[in-house]
Amino acid sequence: MGPPWRPKSVQVSREAAMPLLCIAHRGASAEFPENTLPAFARALELGADGIEFDLHLSFDGVLVVIHDETLARTTSGQGRVAEHTAAQLAELGVPTLEQVLDLAEGRCLLNLELKGVGTGGALAKWATARRAAVHSPRNWLVSSFNRKELEDFKAGEGMAPLGWLCRRLNAVEIATARQLGAWSVHPGWRGLTSHEVEEARKSGFNVIPYTLDTPEQWQRASDWGCDGVFSNRVEPLLTWRADRS
User: Fold this and answer.
1) In degrees, to the nearest 5, what angle opens at C-alpha 172 toward C-alphas 167 and 173?
2) 3-state secondary structure 30-74
3) Cα–Cα distances in Å, from 38 out to 58, 120, 225?
4) Exposure check for the chain: N or C terminus, fewer CB within 10 A?
5) Residue-wise pLDDT tens digits, 5-60
6) For residue 91, how many other CB atoms are within 10 A of its CB?
7) For residue 24, what is the DSSP state?
8) CA–CA separation, 5 vs 97, rounded Å?
9) Which domains does the chain show, CATH number per domain?
């Protein structure tokens, strides 16, 4: 169940007690606004093993990086993301997928979460068109709570491993992950148990819960055998991990 990429900061096998992968949740979002180029640049500077970010489609069909389907919480704009062109969103500080890849491709794992309707098919088409160009899905992990978006991506692209997001890690979610051919499951941390982690790993899945921001949570995830964690607090997590290596 080793990772399909090889993070610079993690060079040992899981059997040799591989430390938790540090995946920067929406970038180094405890220090910079989430899902922005400065947040991603900071995560890379700190040495995160991966960055996670969310995808929506703009009015003109461009894949853009923002969590919500509306603008008010994270920008000075109003209305829905899908009602604005990529150029209008850029004025609000919303980057495109291409900008994020230009910054981070080949430097770490890229966890692309399919949020908006139609993002699965759009990402597959985008990746296929660029496979022979600058960008490729070789260091991608494509995840979603939305089964259809993952199925659409898999049908159109098929190379990148999939991650199944779920709020609770139960038998139904494991079955869905198996049907998708997922490489990993990404359960919510609240309510997660060591037994659930163990059962998921016995079923062949890597387990990467979200969102863990305290040393107590990181230690428990490590003790339970989780393969990595999503965290907003990248620097403290990396320091904690280094102190235990």
Assistant:
1) 40
2) CCCCCCCHHHHHHHHHHCCCEEEEEEEECCCCCEEECCCCECCCC
3) 21, 26, 32
4) C
5) 544 443 333 344 578 999 999 999 999 999 999 999 999 999 999 999 999 999 99
6) 12
7) E
8) 20
9) 21-243 (3.20.20.190)
